[in-house]
Amino acid sequence: MKRPKILLVNPWIHDFAAYDLWAKPLGLLVLGSMLRLQGWDPVFVDCLDPHHHSLKDSLTSGRSRGKFHKTRLQKPEPLELVPRTFSRYGISVDEIRKDLDNQERPKAMLITSLMTYWYSGVAETADLLREVFPGVPLILGGIYASLMPEHAARATMVDEVLLGPAEPRLTETLYRWTSLSPGTDRSNPPIQFTPNLDLLSSVRFLPVLTSRGCPYRCVYCASRLIQPNYQRRDPLEVVREIETNILKYNVDEIVLYDDAFLCHAAEHALPILDAFSSLKPRLRWHTPNGLHVSEISPRVASSMKNAGFKTIRLGLESTSDHFHKTSGGKTNWKDFVRAVGYLKDAGFDTSEIGVYLLVGLPGQTSAQIEQDVEKALEAGAYPKLAEYSPIPGSALWSVSINASRYPIDKEPLYQNCSLLPVATPEVTWEFLSRMRKMIRESMQSPGIDQSGACLNS
Ligand code: B12
Ligand code: SF4
Question: Whole-prediction pTM value?
Answer without folding.
Answer: 0.95
